[in-house]
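TL;DR need C-alpha cells for one chain.
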Amino acid sequence: MKYNYDPESNVLSIQMKDVPFEYAEEVGDFVVHFDKNQKPVYLEILNAQEFVKTSVSLFPSLVQKIILANNL
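>> reply
TL;DR here they are.
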C-alpha cells in the first residue's frame, strides 16, 4: 500500500493495488476507484484532516495505539 497526503488540497490518497482504474464512485468525502473486476484499488479521502481527527477519537485508546504503532 502507498499513502500520500497533499496538504494543499487536504486529500489523503491510498493506493491499494498498482493497476489501472476503470471507474470511480464518490460517497461523501470518499472517492473509491475500482479496477475492471470491480475491486477497490485506490481511495481518496477528501477533507482528510477532519476525517482523521474524528475517526481517531471514535476508537478506544488501545485500538488507537495499535494502529498508530503500525504507522497505519
